[in-house]
Every structure is written in C-alpha cells, then in structure tokens.
Amino acid sequence: MTGNIRTTRRGARFAVVGGGLLAALLLVGCEGSVSLGGREVASGDVEQEIVAKFGALFPGQNPAVDCPDSLRAEVGTTMQCQLTDPGDGTTYPVNVTVNTVDGADTKFGLDLVGLTAVSEEEVEQQIMTNFGSQFDRTDLAVDCPSALRAKAGATLQCTLTDPADSTSYPVNVTVDGVDGDSTSFSFELGDAKTA
Q1: Which of 8, 140, 150, 175 stands 20 to 30 A from 78 (CA)?
Q2: For residue range 50-91, what is the model confidence (pLDDT) as tens digits?
Q3: What is the per-residue pLDDT for 127?
Q4: Does domain 5-24+117-189 have CATH number 3.30.465?
Q5: In 169-181, which positions are buried (b, 16+ CB within 10 angstroms) versus exposed (e)?
Q6: 184 with 148: CB under 8 angstroms?
Q7: Element counts in the chain: helices (H) and strands (E)
Q8: From its phi and psi, is residue 122 left (phi > 0), alpha (psi between -120 and 50) or beta?
Q9: Residue 77 near residue 90 (C-beta atoms within 8 A)
C-alpha cells in the first residue's frame, strides 16, 4: 500500500515521499452529540458540530456550513446540510442521521460526501514506518489531529514522540499530488521539543 518510498537526510531534517497511497472516502460514521431542551436540534448547533468535525480539513479557515432546518430529535431522522470549502468555493453534502435520543441528549452521525482524504491512522502509520528507521525504534508515538485532505498542496502538522526520552518533533505533511484514487505526500521532521 505504500508504493515507492525514498528517504533523504538534510541536516537535522528528513524528507520522506510516500507514493501510491490510496485516498479513502472521508470519515463515514463520524458522530456528533448535542444536548437539547426540546424535541429538535437547532440548525446552528448541527452546523457547529459539522465545523468541529471537519474544520481541520481546511487549514487557515473554517468551512461555511448551511443546514436547511432544525433536526428532529427522533431516531432515523435525516437531513442534508451543505459544507463549502473556503479555499475554492466547492460545496459538499453532509448527510446527518439521528442515531440515538436519550432524554436531552441527541447523537447523530455525520457523513461528508465527495471529499477524499487519507485517514489520520494511515498518515500516522506512514510516519511511524518511515521515521522508525531514522530513530532505530518501532515504538514511536505519532499523533495527527485529523485526516489529510487528498488535494495537492494540502498540509497537516502531526507530532512524533520518541518514547526513549519523551522528545517530540513536529512533522509537517504536504500532499504532493493526487492521481485518481492515489495520493502522494511528503513529510518533514522539524526541530526537537523536549517535554
């Protein structure tokens, strides 16, 4: 699944290019939860939940979200909202489905349709695999805040921690290209930050 990987060392920084990683449909089954006093969730509350779940895919600006109405707090109720990319104005549907209602707590699933990304787990695994040999360790801890959007130039900053001394390093991830359902991206390891 990793395709061609090339490692080079530049001073205290490393660059790794991963080729041929498959982009996957993004975040199906993501769940939001809102406490409410009535029998519906206000459209503004649903919109805030959508921005909270998907906003990290649009670094620099939050996407605009528009939901047509309040969401009935009844299991199985569905609604479609629209999310607009602040960078290029592309609009994506977000399907909202009420999964559970327990008193004043309504839980609903969010499905962002048509936007592709590499899952945060896949990006973390690639970072661990590629930098593991540089640190001569297989137990590096990596944390990425979200999935990596499959769009040339998209960026994400993850954190790599060496368990030997708890030193952490920022890892800047940049999408180099997208070809159909393949996404290639590169990593740059930043300067150490001690705990």
Answers
A1: 150
A2: 998 888 888 788 999 999 999 999 999 999 999 999 988 999
A3: 94
A4: yes
A5: bebebebeebeee
A6: no
A7: 2, 16
A8: alpha
A9: no
- Total-model pTM: 0.67
Question: Token digits for 90?
Answer: 């592309």
pLDDT digits (tens, 9 = 90+) for 24-56: 434 434 555 555 546 899 999 999 999 988 888
What is the distance in angstroms between the CA of the first residue and the CA of the last residue of the chain? 34
Confidence bin at 16 (pLDDT 50/70/90) = very low
Q: What is the C-alpha to C-alpha distance for residues 112 and 92, in angstroms, rounded to an integer?
A: 7
- Which tokens is 154 given? 């998209």
Single-letter residue type at 70:
S
Model pLDDT for residues 104-158, shown as the tens digit of each residue: 888 898 888 988 888 889 999 999 998 988 888 888 999 998 889 898 999 999 9
**Cβ 69 vs Cβ 97: under 8 Å:** no
Concatenating the DSSP letter of every residue in 114-161 gives S-EEE-HHHHHHHHHHHHHHHHT-S--EEE-SSPEESSTT-EEEEEEE
CA atoms within 13 A on the CB side of 21: 30
